[in-house]
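Handout for the seminar on molecular recognition.
Each group receives one record of this type.
Step one: identify the two inputs.
Step two: read the structure output and locate the region that could contact adenosine monophosphate.
Step three: write two sentences on what you found, then compare them with the reference statements printed after the record.
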Amino acid sequence: MHRHPELPQAFADLGIEIPILRALHAVGYKDPSPIQRELIPLVLSGRDVLGQARTGTGKTASFGLPILQKIDPSQPLQAVILTPTRELAVQVLGELKRLAKFLEVHCVPVYGGTRMAQQIHQLGKKPHLIVGTPGRVMDMLDRGVLNFDSVRFVVLDEVDRMLDIGFRDDIRKILGRIKHAHQTVFVSATLEAEVVKLSKTYMNDPVELNVSRDQITVDLITQQYIVVQQWDKYRLLRKIMEHEKPTLVIIFTRTKHGARKLAQRLHADGIEAREIHGDLVQQKRERIMERFRKHHIPILVATDLAARGIDVHGITHIINFDMPDDIEIYVHRIAERRAWAPPEKRYRL
Ligand code: AMP
């Protein structure tokens, strides 16, 4: 390492080798996040891990780095990463591609909403790693365009959410297709009974990790609530916007219809806002997310599913236009992003 003083020594100390250290240097990661510190050596050593971590903790690189390092480019498909939503798949794939910049590892997405022919064509190019949603991966397996014979690594990202969405059967079928020994990593925001049960069935003596730091995320966020009549919510929202002048904000609604209505209303009032929810075609959702990520769109009106797991830097406000019924969802909404990073000034209403 002394010949490469610019490379991040703290990652080298965890066992990460030069091609990946160069990529880490290129993306500017100097120090591992808490989950990376714990998970990277475990995965490098071959252990199965059940990790409790939210988006924003650096979880993607925590399983991504060791797996990328262990992939043998001379062999066919070796790693399968499943995510609950297409948005998260896009995000995970983007991160892995950046980290694999100096490796000969070919990563391909497998999720619904893209044309079947295009997908099959991409899979024909012999990926070493796929990132996909359970439904589409299952579909590709059934069509015989995916072959799991050489798979050695499986990651289920946001397992709890996958179970919530109803991917239970697909997950079981997919995991059941891998007959030989392999290494498995689950990442989940919560370790509810069903997640633990699934891990017992499909993992070999897993190490359980908890690096969620819920306390810290909450410390970094100023939360306020305002009591308002249903009919007066929109007027109050406008007042809050005038008063707070948020530069990058997500407004959460309970339903797709609600998101559409609210975005239209803001638009009609000359406020630049975009809606994002499950009724939009995949390409459009991706385009909107990309523009939001680049701060080209200041306001996103979103449903939980569409915004789930989305990591965007520089968000100043989260507004719960409709409060969720479930406290977990509330925590996801407000505390998901970059829990371990230096505090930014943020408000949640
Ligand atoms: P994740 O929890 O994987 O969605 O990551 C959250 C964000 O942190 C992403 O934007 C990553 O690019 C970024 N990130 C991950 N690990 C590091 C690190 N060690 N140093 C700085 N940024 C990081």
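Reference statements: Residues 29, 31-33, 36, 55-61, 95, 311, 338 surround adenosine monophosphate (CB under 6 Å). The chain is about 45% helix and 15% strand.
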